Amino acid sequence: MKKEIPVSQIMTTSLINLNLDDSLYKAEELFKKYHIRHLPVIKGKKLVGILSYTDLLRLGYADSIDDNLDADNFVYDTLSVRQVMMGKPVFVSSDTSIRKVSEILSEREFHALPVVNEDKDLVGIITTTDLIKYYHGLLYGV
């Protein structure tokens, strides 16, 4: 039987995250600056939610041509990260197998899962991009 490899071997540990009280302006800035699509939301070190770039796009203005739209400002001034994020996100522990993570992502149609320790402190994130790179390496020896 093949040994199950834990997600800790391939997860991203250099985290960019939001605090619960951060603004949607900050969220959009982080998405664009770091070219990422998911931001874990923490309170202290504890995971409390996850915000995706798609969540902002659903608001209708995050990727507009004119970055100075009054409507964009109104939405960002009216709503908070707390209101837009997915609260109580699905997460995994660092010893969850890569196979199990792949199953969760494909069955739930997620693109990222926060990784937490036994105290629910955020320790990493695993994305579909991480998995593609891992499986590509297995297939092609890269």
From TrEMBL:
InterPro entries: CBS_dom, CBS_dom_sf, Diverse_CBS-Domain. Coiled coil: none annotated. Keywords: CBS domain. It comes from the Bacteria. Transmembrane segments: none annotated. Residues 11-68, 85-142 form the CBS domain. This is CBS domain-containing protein.
